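Changelog-linked ticket: NAP example.
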Amino acid sequence: MEKNSKIYVAGHRGMVGSAIVRELTRQGYNNIITRTHSQLDLTRQAAVEQFFEHERPEYVFLAAAKVGGIVANQNALADFMYQNMILEMNVIHAAWQNGCKKLEFLGSSCIYPRLAPQPMPESCLLTGSLEQTNEAYALAKISGLKYCEYLNRQYGTDYISVMPTNLYGPNDNYHPEHSHVLLALIHRFHEAKVEGRAEVTCWGDGSPLREFLYVDDLANLCVFLMNNYSGNETVNAGTGKELTIKALTELVAKVIGYEGRILWDTTRPNGTPRKLLDVSKATNLGWTYRTELEDGIRLAYQDFLNNPMRAER
Ligand SMILES: NC(=O)c1ccc[n+]([C@@H]2O[C@H](COP(=O)([O-])OP(=O)(O)OC[C@H]3O[C@@H](n4cnc5c(N)ncnc54)[C@H](OP(=O)(O)O)[C@@H]3O)[C@@H](O)[C@H]2O)c1
């Protein structure tokens, strides 16, 4: 990308899209175009075609998606599949038809099989059954990354995809059914501290292992890949480091300054025992994450406090 290349970031008000805009701006890219959801509904094919014909962006980061947690996914399987699939197909197809030089598609690690080897390499895609709870979302994401691959193979385009692990950071969305584990913990412990509660009870036994990437690091990788990677296989985005939910919980409590007791309700489900991405591909390309978890949690907590809407709920 040149500094004045026309770059469209789809989903720029979301957690990932806003981080990509911050990173592009930080690196001096000065011709970024955006549209809010209400200005351009990406599920409307005619509107998307019109937008691309008119703007003809040279580069596209596709970070718009209908996103949600387990409950939201389970309750709306059809909506998750329909909206994500239509949105992706509209954007990728219109980009290609209007001469977009390179497109980067954002997916998620839930595209990998439920029983994938740990850490999960990119090559395990489509080698087994998916997790049932988010199958619809995962199938839509797999279709998007496969459509990029098929355009490359049939028409010689240079469209790539990236699959992030659990993300956290500014603009994370707080909603009881949609929030991500780290923001949910921040919210919980912040409330417990403010209300002076003596104990906080968490679900499960705290043993599952998880990986977390600060969203600004993901954005840095996205820009890096746009400039340095071409290929049909996706690229995993993570730190390659994992910790137990118990250790994560203690870290969040420490950052927030909550001094009460942490209890574990072992009658509640634990979820998958381990979920870690193999990040050797990104590492071999010369990229690595920068933000250590404790520092990132501090930044995410600051963002939470700076957003009174979230902190009050
Ligand atoms: N956050 C994570 O932990 C995580 C982890 C792995 C992968 N990812 C991937 O990263 C991508 C972005 O996720 P995110 O966390 O940034 O989600 P997000 O905060 O919910 O942002 C998604 C954005 O897309 C927009 N959007 C949704 N439907 C649209 C439509 N029909 N037309 C136009 N805009 C639309 C939303 O606008 P409205 O809010 O106005 O609808 C929102 O601004 C997704 O592909 C997701 O799978 C995220």
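Closing comment: Example verified and attached. The chain has two domains: 7-168+213-237, 181-209+242-275+291-312. The longest helix spans residues 77-97.
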